């Protein structure tokens, strides 16, 4: 979402014919490497390729719609984050962006840790052999069962989100004869410049414990007294798809301020702070995300400076990128179905998926790009809206984008940067079968999450 360019973009359900689109690129055949994964290109026939594999062949073998995830790119992004932060910090991949057993193996091999926020994500992590001490459990309403499972597995940390939960975790840990390391999630009152539904550090929201009115300090007071938990740090997550580091700066300053208060009141210097995730990626050519190296440098500088001026030892920093790792690594491949030109407005291009495989456009007004990938075309640019096949007029995948005017049913088009929050938010609306995720690497492709079948759907229907 290029929030910077369109701070007050159109909302889901709005009737608007103006559109918020960039001018057509000079050449519609270009696959800008800012928004496409690293190994994407075109072969001499003009067919787009990923990891050396033509998309036409991939469509034949795996069908459409399907997500193709560039494993080399995923691993490279993991390494970029761990290299950038070095050995004095921890990188936790936010599993909610996209999680599967293969992803857990890659994370394990690349030395990352993993955030989970449900029993299902925890089960996937443990099943794929993630060492429990490298797992953090999040969530504003963790069930007793989820907490028991996490504590008995020995997860590295549970991030506490409320007073009630603090007591619950302490009791469960005690009854299991454990001392569970915990962090307290605070809301620092930073409004990240992004869509309201995904900004998570307003005070008026369900996550965390407010810093401003002394609630966070009270939570620390209670946590330090409870047996069964060991308070190891403070956690803050300010939002999603953020480009501007200013929010992190304020957040870090306030969290360090709390660490100083804790030291003054209790004589304890907490060893860790977690600054959350939320770093933006490029969905369109207007988005300019910062490199992990750059982000690491500024975050560490802020924390170090604030700690020095408060006379604190610099705590161990952790960060939790989800989208910034997996988002750019995948694209969704669709087949074009019907094409409906609306005079004076735009052309509606229907694909064989839609809001069931990408809800972000309907949910957040997310902006995406799209390209014709099964062939080259030198036809004129045609203002298009890529829509799905669902029974909702809000079933939009790409609100406004240019496709070549000779687009025809049967062409393949692809939407880049769909690695995060697309498969993980996919639904069975209209009894759609959720698409597979195919990992591609060095000229080979393998299914890591298979396509759903009608048998899968009917198996749950036991009436
Ligand atoms: C969602 C979330 C993240 C990851 O956010 P991204 O925008 O994918 O980087 C990290 N930490 C917490 C606590 C979250 O809720």
Automatic annotation (TrEMBL):
<dbReference type="InterPro" id="IPR022653">
    <property type="entry name" value="De-COase2_pyr-phos_BS"/>
</dbReference>
<dbReference type="InterPro" id="IPR022643">
    <property type="entry name" value="De-COase2_C"/>
</dbReference>
<dbReference type="InterPro" id="IPR022644">
    <property type="entry name" value="De-COase2_N"/>
</dbReference>
<feature type="binding site">
    <location>
        <begin position="320"/>
        <end position="323"/>
    </location>
    <ligand>
        <name>pyridoxal 5'-phosphate</name>
    </ligand>
</feature>
<comment type="function">
    <text>Specifically catalyzes the decarboxylation of meso-diaminopimelate (meso-DAP) to L-lysine.</text>
</comment>
<comment type="subunit">
    <text>Homodimer.</text>
</comment>
<dbReference type="InterPro" id="IPR002986">
    <property type="entry name" value="DAP_deCOOHase_LysA"/>
</dbReference>
<keyword id="KW-0210">Decarboxylase</keyword>
<feature type="binding site">
    <location>
        <position position="364"/>
    </location>
    <ligand>
        <name>substrate</name>
    </ligand>
</feature>
<comment type="pathway">
    <text>Amino-acid biosynthesis; L-lysine biosynthesis via DAP pathway; L-lysine from DL-2,6-diaminopimelate: step 1/1.</text>
</comment>
<dbReference type="Pfam" id="PF02784">
    <property type="entry name" value="Orn_Arg_deC_N"/>
</dbReference>
<feature type="binding site">
    <location>
        <position position="421"/>
    </location>
    <ligand>
        <name>substrate</name>
    </ligand>
</feature>
<dbReference type="Pfam" id="PF00278">
    <property type="entry name" value="Orn_DAP_Arg_deC"/>
</dbReference>
<feature type="modified residue" description="N6-(pyridoxal phosphate)lysine">
    <location>
        <position position="96"/>
    </location>
</feature>
<keyword id="KW-0457">Lysine biosynthesis</keyword>
<keyword id="KW-0663">Pyridoxal phosphate</keyword>
<feature type="domain" description="Orn/DAP/Arg decarboxylase 2 N-terminal">
    <location>
        <begin position="72"/>
        <end position="327"/>
    </location>
</feature>
<feature type="region of interest" description="Disordered">
    <location>
        <begin position="1"/>
        <end position="28"/>
    </location>
</feature>
<feature type="binding site">
    <location>
        <position position="392"/>
    </location>
    <ligand>
        <name>substrate</name>
    </ligand>
</feature>
<feature type="binding site">
    <location>
        <position position="323"/>
    </location>
    <ligand>
        <name>substrate</name>
    </ligand>
</feature>
<keyword id="KW-0456">Lyase</keyword>
<comment type="similarity">
    <text>Belongs to the Orn/Lys/Arg decarboxylase class-II family. LysA subfamily.</text>
</comment>
<feature type="binding site">
    <location>
        <position position="360"/>
    </location>
    <ligand>
        <name>substrate</name>
    </ligand>
</feature>
<keyword id="KW-0028">Amino-acid biosynthesis</keyword>
<feature type="domain" description="Orn/DAP/Arg decarboxylase 2 C-terminal">
    <location>
        <begin position="332"/>
        <end position="419"/>
    </location>
</feature>
<feature type="binding site">
    <location>
        <position position="421"/>
    </location>
    <ligand>
        <name>pyridoxal 5'-phosphate</name>
    </ligand>
</feature>
<protein>
    <recommendedName>
        <fullName>Diaminopimelate decarboxylase</fullName>
        <ecNumber>4.1.1.20</ecNumber>
    </recommendedName>
</protein>
<dbReference type="InterPro" id="IPR022657">
    <property type="entry name" value="De-COase2_CS"/>
</dbReference>
<dbReference type="InterPro" id="IPR029066">
    <property type="entry name" value="PLP-binding_barrel"/>
</dbReference>
<dbReference type="InterPro" id="IPR009006">
    <property type="entry name" value="Ala_racemase/Decarboxylase_C"/>
</dbReference>
<dbReference type="InterPro" id="IPR000183">
    <property type="entry name" value="Orn/DAP/Arg_de-COase"/>
</dbReference>
<feature type="binding site">
    <location>
        <position position="278"/>
    </location>
    <ligand>
        <name>pyridoxal 5'-phosphate</name>
    </ligand>
</feature>
């Amino acid at each position: 979402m290029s929030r910077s360019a369109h701070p007050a973009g159109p909302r889901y359900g709005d009737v608007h014919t103006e559109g918020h689109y960039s001018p057509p690129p000079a050449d519609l055949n270009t696959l800008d490497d800012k928004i496409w994964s690293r190994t994407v290109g075109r072969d001499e026939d003009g067919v787009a390729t990923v990891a050396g594999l033509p998309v036409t062949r991939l469509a034949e073998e795996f069908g459409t719609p399907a997500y193709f995830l560039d494993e080399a790119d995923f691993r490279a992004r993991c390494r970029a984050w761990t290299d950038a932060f070095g050995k004095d910090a921890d990188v936790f991949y936010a599993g909610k962006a996209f999680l599967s057993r293969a992803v857990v193996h890659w994370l394990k091999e690349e030395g990352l840790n993993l955030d989970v926020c449900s029993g299902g994500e925890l089960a996937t992590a443990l099943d794929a052999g993630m060492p429990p001490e490298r797992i953090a459990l999040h969530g504003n309403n963790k069930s007793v069962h989820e907490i028991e499972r996490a504590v008995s597995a020995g997860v590295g940390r549970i991030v506490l989100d409320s007073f009630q939960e603090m007591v619950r975790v302490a009791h469960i840990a005690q009854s299991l004869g454990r001392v569970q390391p915990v962090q307290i999630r605070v809301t620092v009152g930073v409004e990240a410049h992004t869509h309201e539904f995904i900004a998570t550090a307003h005070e008026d929201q369900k996550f965390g414990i407010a810093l401003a009115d002394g609630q966070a300090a009270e939570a620390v007071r209670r946590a330090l007294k409870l047996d069964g938990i060991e308070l190891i740090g403070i956690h803050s997550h300010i939002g999603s798809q953020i480009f501007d580091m200013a929010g992190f700066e304020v957040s870090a300053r306030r969290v360090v301020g709390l660490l100083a208060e804790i030291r003054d009141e209790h004589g304890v210097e907490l060893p860790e702070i977690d600054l959350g995730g939320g770093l933006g990626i490029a969905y369109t050519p207007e988005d300019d995300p910062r490199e992990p190296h750059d982000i690491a440098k500024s975050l560490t500088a802020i924390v170090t400076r604030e700690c020095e001026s408060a006379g604190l030892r610099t705590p161990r920093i952790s960060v939790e990128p989800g989208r910034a790792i997996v988002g750019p690594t995948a694209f969704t491949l669709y087949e074009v179905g019907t094409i409906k030109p609306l005079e004076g407005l735009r052309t509606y291009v229907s694909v064989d998926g839609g809001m069931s495989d990408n809800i972000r456009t309907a949910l957040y007004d997310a902006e995406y790009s799209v390209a014709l990938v099964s062939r080259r075309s030198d036809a004129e640019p045609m203002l298009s809206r890529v829509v799905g096949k669902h029974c909702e007029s809000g079933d939009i995948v790409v609100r406004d984008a240019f496709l070549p005017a000779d687009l025809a049913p049967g062409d393949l088009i692809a939407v880049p940067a769909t690695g995060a929050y697309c498969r993980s938010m996919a639904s069975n609306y209209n009894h759609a079968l959720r698409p597979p995720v195919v990992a591609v690497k060095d000229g080979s492709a393998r299914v890591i999450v298979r396509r759903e079948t009608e048998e899968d759907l009917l198996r749950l229907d036991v009436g």
